[in-house]
Amino acid sequence: MTMKSCSAAAPCSTANLGPGYDVFGLALDAFEDKVKVSRASSDGEGRISIKNSDQAIPSTPESNSAGLVAKKMMQDFGISDNIEIEVTKGVPSGYGVGSSAASAAAAAMAFNTLYDLKIDKNRLVEYAAEGEVASAGTKHYDNVSASLLGSFVVCRIASDRLQFTRLEPPKDLVLVIAVPWLEVPKKKTEVARSVLPKVVPLKDVVHNISGAATIVAGFALKDVETITKGIDDAIIEPARKHLIPGYDSVKQNAISAGALAVTISGAGPSMIAFLKTSKNAKTVAAAMVKGFKETGIESRTFVCGASKGARLLA
Length: 314
Description:
Blueprint: E1 5-16, E2 20-41, E3 48-52, H1 65-77, E4 82-88, H2 99-114, H3 121-129, H4 133-136, H5 142-149, E5 152-158, E6 161-167, E7 174-180, H6 188-194, H7 202-221, H8 224-229, H9 236-240, H10 247-256, E8 261-264, E9 271-275, H11 281-293, E10 299-304, E11 311-313
């Protein structure tokens, strides 16, 4: 029996984790997006109509992360049906927690299942990355790989071929996300990328390689303290922190309250703190709120853990 529709959900995520720019992604169980893909009519003209729960999200396929994914998959597999995509946003858009990636990952999974394309997970991540063009202006894989595959993911491009290493996080890893209510620009990720340096000192590269290696070792060893020793970015974060009012206060407050490490979540402006247990989580959350408030910015915090990734919905 031919399916008429299929729905999937995909979680939010944090990328970079300090020194792992465009390489590290970690799926989070704080929020998720849901995407329903339906056949509106068979043998149509390949039209895509989009309905968003968030009116601020573009509804044209070329500007919508879920729409871009579906468009590419339809082109590659010669699908001419008219389809409808319904996006129910749960991930705050434009705040550095993988909003576009969650929609893209859920769309890729739902479309793959609806048309029984049997695409392997590596290639499915490539399709999901098409959706990042809507917010970042270019494809990148850290958030979408984490959102789709779950857990901690290391992305590698070798000879134009994507490779992913997925590691289960330690069970005692606790994260606190502080989301400031700032007005963020359209294509915020693209803006955040525009401030990055083109040339960096070799010592900073070495520093970041050392930190990134330590983070991977920490996940492999299931050791939160080792992970957090590597979360110290000498290249990207210094270039972006001026975009986040209260950055220094939020970071210092969280560390003083018991966080083992604090960094910008993805392209920001959200900040994320890493803890070994939930014991100090509320204290750290309150300290981060206070840090933003010192510069007149209201914020919300969420305590979460790692997510298992995207899933189909009944």
